[in-house]
Amino acid sequence: MSKKPAKKTDRVKRLAVLFWVVGLLLAACMGRAIYLVTANGNEFRHKALAQATGTSTSIAAKPGSILDANGTYLAATKRVYRLILDPKVMAETDEANPGSLDKTAEILSETFSLDIDEVKKAFTENTDSSYLRFGGSSGTILEDEEVEAYKEAVSAFNSEKTTYNAKILAKEIEGTKITAKVSGVWFEEEYRREYPLGDTLSKVIGYTTEDMSEGILGLEKYYSDLIQGVDGKEYKYIDENGKVTTEVVEAEDGLTLQTSLDANVSAILKNAIVKFQEETGGHRINIIVMNPNNGEIIAMESDTEFDLNDPTDLSALFTEEELENPAESFLLQEAFKGRTEELEAMTKEEQLEALLQQVQLNYAVSGTYEPGSTAKALTLATGIEENIIDPEDTFFCDGTIEVEGYSIHCHMDDQCGYLTPMEALGRSCNVCYVQIGQKIGIETFTKYQEIFNLGQKTGIDLPAEANTKNLIYHEDSMQTIDLSTSSFGQSFNVSMIQLASAYASLINGGYYYEPHVVTSVLDSEGNTVEEIEPLLVRRTISEETSEYMREALEYVIEKGTAGYVKIDGYNLLGKTGASEKLPRSEQNYVVSFIGAAPADDPKFLIYATVDEPDVEDQSMSKPAQELVRYCLDDLYAYYGIFPETADDAYSYDWSQLRDSTDSSDAAKGKSFIDDPEGTLRWITDDENLLNRTENTDSEEEEPSQETEDTE
Ligand SMILES: [Zn+2]
Predict the structure, then answer these.
(1) What is the whole-number distance in angstroms between the Cα of residue 388 and the centre of ligand 1?
(2) Ligand 1 centroid to 570 CA: how many Å?
(3) E strands within 24-92?
(4) pLDDT under 50 in the chain at which residues?
(5) What is the pTM of this model?
(6) Ligand 1 ion: residues within 5 Å (CB)
(7) What pLDDT digit, counting tens, does each position of 241-278 carry?
């Protein structure tokens, strides 16, 4: 309501002459201004009291932000303004000062790009109201700069008017005085949650209800109490003199989460997913990148990241046609497997709602699946750590093994011959791992599953972590056949975060860290309130076993099934997986790769899964390797990992693996064989030598990956 003086530079020479004129005008305006303020003030007071039902109103706390490791805002709270009109005041003003409505509507429409007729209509059709949210219940939301632009426009008009009117009064020009006043407009301040990176890390960050009072997903939900802050209160009461008195308890701003997430790494993963979808394609793609040395989560991305600023909009993820038939979608078909009647009985709206839920599910934490061959590394580590398996042992595979009346086959009935445990990992030989598992025995096997935290929650600081307690055999429930299939990753479920955390301990020296996302909590000034240190839960294996595992997992890349993921000159370690989904008859697979680089001192761990890749033979892990390879292209550079010299780099040569198991090595170890009566027994060293087979067929494709035939 106060007037800004006109710019001095233009007017300083005339100021002496015009002083009395301007003075008079100002005095007149001030009188009007005071009147309006009082009138408005009364209106607001009445309104506030009515709203407060005689007691109090809440003052919103400003929620804290969520930051990535580099300080990039993942979630921010922004102050915005609602455009509020006071048509009652406008009507009075326009009567006293003709032209006010037109001028006010003009400035509003110009600064906020609003339809001028709509603005005028809002004023003229609601003259009884002193509080009108322009643009309906959701209103017109304006930002700082927009409100600033409006104030400047009003101030420019006022100074033009003052100058113009002064000139008329001074008879410098002829014309009619401008009476119009900008009036009946105010701005209500509120906070808005904003996600500057849109669909990056959406399932990890999560989002809130529109009023920010409740976290719906992700960190927003898990840390809701910290982020929200505590609302303040404004108490109003009428004192003994009949005066309205106000007492204020200020709001406490929410705390800010500093996370280990890295939006740059997320961008790398997102690009890789896009490229993979263009080149090969598949469903339910998920990638975790974590620091294997302390459990910090660096990124979690999927093929169904949604825009956090518009979390219910599915149009970016599905075509119009797909949204017409949500029941046909892969995600709903999976979610309602075996209950398709239930799905079909739902209305389209219910189906869309269910689809939205599936999209927003953070599969890496909340989903579970049979890990397949990636679990062989845990079996191997168990055997080595307990000295049950010697690295020099050999195991024999003739393509199939009988266990309790079941035939367990190697991939494509491959006859692997004699393999050391490391070679068997390299070839991902089921038959050898059945033998290794049986040698370990049920008691030790289940004990180590527990040590690797399978069947238990990891405790990651994200909501809705999958509970796999009943999706795994325990010592008292496990039979030899279950032990045999569990040894190569079938017949139990893991969540990705479980396996990632277990693998981190395999390669970091045997330290199992609780995976976590938030590293510290800051107050609204940016001061650290709490540091969240990595939590070492337990030792899983010794330094020596871990060193052996790094070597074994590097061998898988250099000479085993994971040759495709390798980029020449870089030392990577890792393991492939292809787990056959139920029902096995459909021959559908989840393929995976979990690895870390550099192999001798891993800086990052990467784990990717692709559900039902769009390839003819899903039982090959190649699509998962392809996806990870796209990520590695950029991750190496981002982590400052440079290629070794060409001499150091192995070249992938599958036939080498076959040749490497010569008879002298084989003679040192012992293996299981299945004898004609169908029972398992140790073979003698002599038998080892006698039965030694020479594998001559050299395959183009990497072999590997299990199939289980249960007869
Ligand atoms: Zn085999």
Answers:
(1) 20
(2) 28
(3) 56-59, 66-67, 73-85
(4) 1-9, 11-13, 15-54, 646-711
(5) 0.77
(6) 397, 410, 416, 429, 431
(7) 878 788 888 989 999 999 999 999 999 999 999 999 99
